[in-house]
Amino acid sequence: MFLTQQGGLLGPFAWIFGKILDFMYNMLADGNGVANLGVCIILFTIIVKLILIPMNVHTSKTSKINSLIQPEIKKIQKKYQGKKDEASMMKQQQELQAVYDKYGTSMTGGCLPMLIQFPIIMGLYRVIQSIPAYVGKIKDVYTPIAEAILNKKGTATQEFLINYVNDEKITTASYAISKFKDVETIGTDHVIDVISNMGITDLTDMLQTLGLNGQFVSNIDKINEIYSFALGINISEAPGYRLTWALLIPLVSVICNFLSMKVSMAKTGQSGDATADTMMKSMMITMPVMSALICITMPAGIGIYWAMGAFISIIIQLGMNFYFDHLDMDKFIEKQIEKAEKKKAKRGGKKSFMERMMDSSEEAKKELEKQQAMKKNAANSLKSYVPSENAKNSSANTSGKKYKKGSIGANANIMMNYNNREEK
């Protein structure tokens, strides 16, 4: 059923979400196996965002706790302000870690859910980018066209498609072509990977070039019906920089992404770290701009997913903010401290990962200082060495002897010769 779907780490995520999208499409499809893909993507995005709510709640909760303990954090930072020696920096880190342990959080507590979400988001992106690979009914519409292209071009199919996409500058198919170049034996699935990333206009033009357009009028009509969205927007084509209704998608995406970040940062405030605060402010600009570039250059279907995802994130974050606004913060903090104490007791005296890391750092520092002291003592002992009369005579007898450079004998001979010259 599936084409050259995503493999590796992203493979399982793409497979699961591909199943969800396939179910959504089959549920909405009519007797001809045709459904509006734009509606499917919107419903699909809503379901996926609902699945990810627990991770979003954890991230918001961690951010809230970290914002509440900022007075204690700033107090410690102020205590060690201007102290750059290693001992002071180590003590500062230990005191900061003690505060985070007290409330059962960490400096990077909100990063783990984001790291977990990253392969999920990338897997979702690949599903949206290669829809026929995961939706059987859409693949069925493309299969006769792909087979006809293979029969027409034979062994030259790969070269033809690569050249056509590059010559016509079909940017939406550039990713598929980059993978297509590495395929040794071309099959129907590989051809579908490429032609499904072409817009209706580009696909029709290519079939006309091959003299096949007359055979697949009904297929093109079905594809057009599947990919048609509101206001005549075709979600298989990139909006580009043309003044069309399709530009509404990147515009909505920019607005929703900006508001999403604005709402998510509204309750966390300033972190006290100038570098981190500057980075967060710059992200409020760079993220919406990045979303605009993606939505303009990629098929509009991806833009719908991107914009809808940001819109749902706003709703979820507003809900979280409302929850925290009406929460008794004193009780909330008390519960966090209780949970942290229970977690510490459950470890049975075992140190946390961060504590072990800090202990390892302290041990490494002591070991380094010990080795440096040993080297220093050895150097001082060598410099203060006073040879006996026998050693001097032995040195005189061996002064012309050659030693291997850098050996113990060579170093000892140098020192003995030096001492002899000093006495003279």
Characterize the structure shown.
This protein has 424 residues and is mostly helical. The chain has 19 helices and no strands. The protein has helices spanning 11-28, 37-51, 53-68, 70-79, 86-102, 111-129, 136-153, 157-167, 174-180, 188-195, 200-210, 217-227, 248-266, 274-297, 300-325, 329-346, 353-383, 389-398, 408-423. Helix 5 runs antiparallel to helix 17 (353-383). The longest helix is centred in the C-terminal third of the chain and has 31 residues, at 353-383. The termini are far apart.
Please provide a brief summary of the model.
With 424 residues, the protein is mostly helical.
Keywords:
single chain; 424 residues; mainly alpha; 19 helices; 72% helix; 0% strand
Strand content: under 5%
Number of helical runs? 19
Give the H and E element order: HHHHHHHHHHHHHHHHHHH
Instruction: From the alpha carbons, calculate the radius of gyration and give it in angstroms.
Output: 34 Å
- Spatial shape: elongated
- Helix content range: over 70%
Which helices and strands appear, and what pairs or packs with what?
Elements: H1 11-28, H2 37-51, H3 53-68, H4 70-79, H5 86-102, H6 111-129, H7 136-153, H8 157-167, H9 174-180, H10 188-195, H11 200-210, H12 217-227, H13 248-266, H14 274-297, H15 300-325, H16 329-346, H17 353-383, H18 389-398, H19 408-423
Helix pairs in contact: 1-2, 1-6, 2-15, 3-6, 3-15, 4-5, 5-17, 7-10, 7-12, 13-14, 13-15, 14-15, 18-19
